[in-house]
Design brief:
The chain has 130 residues and is mainly alpha-helical. It has one domain. The protein is built from six helices and two strands; from the N terminus they run H-H-E-E-H-H-H-H. A two-stranded antiparallel ribbon has the order 1-2. Helix 1 runs antiparallel to helix 4, helix 2 packs across helix 3 and helix 4 crosses helix 5. The relative contact order is 0.19.
Length: 130
């Protein structure tokens, strides 16, 4: 059963499949900025890297680095991993990675707050896209 947040992740990531890598990295950068102000660099890194471990069980080629340096949100290893894959495979892995991340945070802070954080990070263009 797909939750509201899972549907939002799919909509956000898969709206332009040909640009999946750029969209994925952009959404991670925006989410990182939003969440680091609340949970700090270490908190974000911990959840991000744990999500990567969970995702790598299904996509062992997915490599995540520790992306946070105070002013550097590049997600370079994630980008390189996704660029080496077919569009559908990169899209599927991106959806699973975000899903794992969102699931972990949702279990800690609840769906309502997580939805508000995503809306703040990703904006109306993602939330109101058809």
């Amino acid at each position: 059963m797909e939750t509201r947040l899972n549907a939002l992740i799919n909509k956000a990531l898969l709206r332009r499949p040909e640009a999946i890598v750029d969209i994925t990295v952009s959404l991670w950068e925006k989410l990182a900025v939003e969440l680091i102000s609340l949970i700090g660099d270490g908190g974000f890194q911990s959840v991000y890297l744990r999500s990567g471990v969970l995702t790598a069980a299904r996509y062992p080629w997915l490599v995540l680095d520790s992306p946070m340096r105070q002013t550097d949100f590049q997600f370079a290893e994630l980008r390189r991993s996704l660029e080496g894959r077919a569009i559908t495979e990169a899209g599927d892995a991106s959806v699973v990675l975000f899903g794992n991340f969102i699931d972990i945070l949702t279990s800690l802070i609840g769906e309502h707050l997580m939805t508000n954080l995503l809306h703040s990070a990703w904006g109306d263009d993602v939330f109101n896209a058809k």
